[in-house]
């Protein structure tokens, strides 16, 4: 949700009207899963994708209408058999896409989305976004979203959804995957989207590989923070896509970084000494992923030094080194692709484990 929320908040702050398209129901084979969303601007430009092809084309066309009317709408795609053979819309599945106008003048909606953005870097987040689903909801209706957040004192609710059946907030907070729930009257539902801490990639080292890694990781949904001790390398000109750039000593890599179970660490510094220093501290944390660039010989030299310092062999097995999937990558661009592929693989593995 991190990239989607960042884009949405940025556009609303700039005064732009948008339509959010979400897959709220899917059965059988389809290009994307329930909860996949994209943002459609007034000029038809789309941020994100819900599957491409004819399905996405029809969604964009419908979004033009939603922009004009300022009222929500649902598109139902039911294609099987010969219909599928004649179009690239689906692969024999059933999909419902909900189009919701989100305009800057709806202060209540803006507050909800800003609150979600604030949760992106929080630790141990347990929250869910609730969206009222029905055709014809006006863009300025203030009671169509609610954000529920579990805190030490209980469940806090930002916003409200009017009418419908009583909601068991605790039960909704336990959902691991987006889900459509009935909500009173026929044709009215709520869509529940779990909110989790952002998947953030911390890139230690601002060299050549990192300049390719940063935009690639950003494109596939990771937040990106670049860390180096050289301001000539770690700067916005070299890393325009990074969410944050920190110039700080690599000997104290985590002084100003909070590592969570959704943090990913890529160690790509300019030499053994810095790699060793960062890895030593990273192993004291519990991130989702630790990867270190370099040859197997370099890895063994660093591992031997760490084991002499008391780090166990089992602990070192957490490290992906050489970093990246083994695809024969040689150039900085290819190495960046291999790293992002491994990040995606690990992220998907962890999410399946969470949802098992």
Mean pLDDT: 89
Overall number of strands: 16
The rough form would be described as elongated
Q: What is the element string, with H for helices and E for strands?
A: HEEEHEHEHEEEHEEEHEEEHEHHEH
User: Helix content range of the residues, please?
Assistant: 25-40%
The strand order across the widest sheet is 13-12-11-14-15-16
Subunit arrangement of the protein: single chain
Query: How much β-strand is present in the residues?
Result: 25-35%
Q: Uncertain segments of ≥5 residues (pLDDT<50)?
A: 82-90
Count of DSSP H/I helices:
10
Helix/sheet category: alpha/beta
The Cα radius of gyration reads 22 Å
Please describe the biggest sheet, giving its number of strands, its sense, and whether it closes into a barrel: 6 strands, parallel
N/C terminus separation: 20 Å
Question: What's this, in brief?
Answer:
With 356 residues, the protein is an alpha/beta fold. It is built from ten helices and 16 strands. The two termini are 20 Å apart.
